[in-house]
């Protein structure tokens, strides 16, 4: 019986450690090699993001928090784009492409929008299932911050400014 409790305790500790690493950002992980298929039919790869600070946002048109945060994401993009900041909105595989296109066009999203038709991109980025999930990638292609749910935008802006200042 004691061994069962010990094993359970080790499993809980390991899970907590992984969770702390992912959600508290105690380390920097290379952004996964991915190909993003954009609404215009072109594609971008993770390698194309290097040299820019990039916000990668997994979202869905059916996600009320995603829809509510989109004006802030647009404002953030508009504020920092000229300084080397990029935004990539990745629609989840279950989101109907026509809904994504309609959303992007009616809201005049100024940044690149991709559709993850197969779910492979979400899987590569840590098996993203909760939306919105937002990753901040530095100029070297490392994930430096992850938000599940809407980011604290003033804090996000401070982080972007710090990352843009890095060489």
From TrEMBL:
The keyword Cytoplasm does not apply. SUPFAM superfamilies: Thioredoxin-like. Gene3D superfamilies: Glutaredoxin (3.40.30.10). Residues 25-165 form the Thioredoxin domain. Keywords: Membrane, Transmembrane, Transmembrane helix. CDD domains: TlpA_like_family. One of its GO terms (molecular function) is oxidoreductase activity. The chain crosses the membrane at residues 6-24. PANTHER family: CHROMOSOME UNDETERMINED SCAFFOLD_47, WHOLE GENOME SHOTGUN SEQUENCE, THIOL:DISULFIDE INTERCHANGE PROTEIN DSBE. This is Redoxin. It comes from Acidovorax kalamii.
């Amino acid at each position: 019986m004691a061994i069962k409790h010990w094993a359970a305790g080790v499993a809980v500790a390991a899970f907590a450690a992984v969770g702390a690493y992912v959600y508290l950002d105690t380390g920097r992980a290379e952004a996964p090699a991915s190909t993003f298929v954009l609404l215009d039919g072109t594609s971008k790869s993770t390698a194309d993001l290097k040299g820019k600070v990039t916000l990668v946002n997994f979202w869905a048109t059916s996600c009320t928090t995603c829809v509510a945060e989109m004006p802030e994401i647009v404002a953030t993009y508009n504020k920092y784009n000229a300084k080397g900041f990029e935004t990539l909105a990745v629609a989840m595989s279950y989101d109907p492409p026509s809904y994504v296109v309609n959303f992007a066009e009616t809201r005049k999203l100024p940044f690149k929008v991709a559709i993850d038709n197969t779910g492979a991109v979400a899987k590569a980025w840590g098996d993203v299932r909760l939306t919105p999930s937002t990753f901040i990638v530095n100029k070297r292609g490392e994930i430096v911050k992850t938000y599940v749910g809407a980011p604290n935008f003033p804090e996000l802006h401070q982080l972007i400014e710090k990352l843009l200042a890095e060489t």
